[in-house]
Design brief:
The complex is a heterodimer of chains A (about 290) and B (about 300). Chain A is about 35% helix and about 30% strand. Chain A is an alpha/beta fold and about 290 residues long. Among the domains of chain A are: about 15-105 and about 175-250, P-loop containing nucleotide triphosphate hydrolases (Rossmann fold, 3-Layer(aba) Sandwich), CATH 3.40.50.300; about 255-290, no CATH class. In chain B, a hairpin with a 2-residue loop joins β2 (about 145) and β3. In chain B, α4 packs parallel to α12, α9 (about 190-195) runs antiparallel to α10 and α10 packs across α11. Chain B is mainly alpha-helical. Helices cover about 65% and strands about 5% of the residues of chain B. The radius of gyration of chain B is 28 Å and the shape is extended. Classes of the chains: A alpha/beta (about 290), B mainly alpha (about 300). The interface of A and B includes residues 103, 124, 131 and 149 of A.
Chain lengths: ~290, ~300
């Protein structure tokens, strides 16, 4: 679909976030002076403990709420209430940016799964035949064709998440925002989601994920932005480096000191949502723990 | 902070023997269960919509259209024999649609016509519909005037009164049967979408669909909260504290529904919703739908003509 929007499509930065301040009801701060860029085709993870402002940031990036101070630019144009009232820009932005909500129940508002997946493309004014073809394709890809006639309340958590992802990806957005996508998913559904996100990344999509699950962060991102409990950016860098910085992760409350006992001896070491860790114990003997979450 | 109380020995005495009395469920629990089951199974039956029957095979639009004109025709029939024929036809349709006849009759006759029967009952008496007496009920000393109402000396069931009451009850029973047939053989979302046949605005049907969907969600939430509270309630509870809790829950659900509403709106906006709602369907009209619609229109026209002759 050609939409006549004058944007700087040559810009390398998809999102530019500058000195963002956002608070609930003007009183409870959610984000304070947050700045970062997201480049085209990047896989970025926003890491932070519960209440650090990750979900608010995702809502702001999707133009669902607006900052009290600072600005967010999408391909050079500011995401503001005024700009999103412009029907042309709104359609353009909604076409380019897809958002998978943390709570699938609020995202799945239609009466059947088919209607849910078709909602986005219909509202972005794709021809009906194209809508039907896309619903068919994405459902086949995610294995949810059998759910078409089902109502959202009849689905399991994993199925709901798949439908939510299908209903977002079906409009073929360039940027995909996912808020805590692995929350409440069983290990197999998590693995399927990771595989699907890898495929989308290889197809050139920009992916921004908010999570506190460090294991997932390691698998699906190259760059990490860490929000601390003061709602500011604590650190930004390569995911691998961030995840190796124990002090930083402790400070951001992403891992905690785990105290346990081996051979009658008490040990303490950092512990979080990571696959496994090595650590040395006293008296020169070392061993490895495996933690599966 | 000391947690010594958490670490104390909790070896309990043996569980007391049950006194054999059945465990009574509270009215709140019963009400919640009933409301949930009403929404899940009461009106729409997923089980019967999935059966490979005659009405299930029709396009929902054809079904809504034809059953709709049948309902209109039924309200116009005055001839009791045509009404009885129409009612028998609904039973035949139920049979062809693989709906158990007993289940179908109970669903139709249990409530609505029962109430309409109570309304129609006075009409059988010569107090309201004068006519040829069939059975004399009471003989008074003389005629009594009650305002505009004249009570005759002999109160009796009249032939004309019985006929008009029967026509009324049969109209209601047949109309309800047709609606029950529609809801038992068509999925709720399909019924809503098919209402566009009657030019019902899409926005209206979409809101209805969403209401139905979120009533489910909120009911489940209320049930969970109630069970969570029950699991922590020890001993018998005072009725007043139960009432207080219900009031607090009404406020909680209200708040929850408002915040859910806001989030749902955000989710809609995020996928391109601005002010206008757009929907599509993947219904396919088949030759059988045309044939059935033509049959329905013809039968309705013929029976209406016969009714007026």
């Amino acid at each position: 679909m050609d939409i006549d929007i004058k944007l700087d499509s040559e810009l390398d930065n998809i999102f530019e976030v500058r000195n963002l301040h956002y608070s609930f009801l003007g009183r409870y701060p959610a984000l304070c002076d947050v700045s970062f860029d997201v480049k085209r085709g990047e896989r970025v993870v926003v890491l932070g403990a519960n209440g650090s402002g990750k979900s608010s940031l995702m809502n702001l990036l999707d133009g669902l709420v607006f900052p009290q101070k600072g600005e967010i630019r999408f391909m050079g144009r500011e995401i503001s209430e005024q700009n999103l009232k412009d029907e042309n820009f709104n359609r353009f932005f909604r076409n380019k940016v897809g958002f998978v909500f943390q709570n699938s129940d609020v995202q799945l508002f239609s009466s059947t799964v088919w209607d849910e997946i078709a909602f986005g493309p219909l509202h972005l004014e794709l021809p009906h035949d194209e809508v039907k073809a896309r619903v068919e394709d994405i459902s086949g890809l995610l294995g949810i064709k059998k759910l078409w006639e089902r109502a959202p309340y009849q689905l399991s958590g994993g199925e709901k998440k798949k439908v939510a992802i299908a209903s977002t990806v079906v409009v073929n957005p360039d940027v995909l925002l996912l808020d805590e996508p692995t929350n409440g998913l069983d290990p197999r559904s998590q693995a399927e989601l990771v595989d699907f996100l890898q495929e989308l990344y290889q197809a050139g999509k920009t992916i921004i994920i908010s999570t506190h699950d460090l294991n997932i962060a390691k698998m699906i991102s190259d760059r990490a932005i860490v929000l601390n409990e003061s709602h500011t950016v604590e650190a930004e860098g390569a995911t691998r480096d961030i995840l190796e910085n124990t002090e930083l992760l402790l400070k951001a409350n992403l891992i905690h000191e785990h105290i346990h006992c081996h051979d009658g001896e008490i040990h303490r070491h950092p512990h979080g949502h990571v696959g496994e860790h090595d650590h040395e114990h006293g008296r020169g003997h070392a061993h490895k723990h495996s933690h599966k979450h | 902070m000391s947690f010594h109380w958490l670490k104390t020995d909790h070896s309990l005495p043996p569980a007391p023997q049950s006194n054999g009395a059945p465990n009574k469920k509270g009215y709140l629990e019963k009400t919640l269960r009933e409301i949930t089951s009403f929404f899940v199974n009461g009106i729409f039956s997923e089980e019967t919509t999935a059966k490979a029957g005659f009405l299930q095979a029709l396009d929902p639009r054809a079904k809504v259209f034809t059953l709709g004109i049948f309902v209109i025709a039924v309200t116009l029939y005055k001839n009791i024999y045509i009404l009885l024929g129409a009612y028998a036809f609904t039973i035949l349709l139920a049979h062809l649609s693989k709906i158990g006849i007993g289940f179908f009759l109970i669903r139709v006759w249990l409530f609505i016509p029962l109430f309409s029967g109570i309304i129609a009952l006075p009409a059988v008496l010569n107090i309201f519909v004068p006519g040829d007496p069939l059975v004399d009920l009471v003989t008074l000393e003389k005629e009594i005037m009650l305002g505009p109402l004249k009570i005759p000396q002999t109160v009796s069931v009249t032939k004309q009164g019985l006929l008009s009451a029967s026509v009324f009850v049969m109209r209601v029973a047949t109309s309800v049967s047709l609606v029950v047939l529609l809801t038992l053989t068509t999925k709720w979302p399909h019924i809503l979408k098919s209402l566009s046949v009657f030019r019902v605005p899409q926005f209206f049907t979409f809101i209805l669909g969403m209401t139905y969907r979120y009533i489910h969600l909120l009911l489940r939430l209320i049930e969970d909260v109630h069970l969570a509270r029950r699991s922590r309630t020890i001993g018998k509870e005072k009725a007043s504290s139960g009432r207080k809790w219900i009031i607090s829950q009404i406020r909680f659900v209200m708040k929850k529904s408002l915040s859910t509403g806001e989030q749902v709106y955000s989710a809609m906006v995020s996928r391109g919703f601005m002010y206008e709602l757009k929907t599509a369907d993947n219904f396919k009209i088949k030759p059988i739908d045309y044939a059935w619609s033509a049959f329905a229109v013809t039968v309705t026209a013929v029976t209406l003509v016969l009714n007026w002759i």
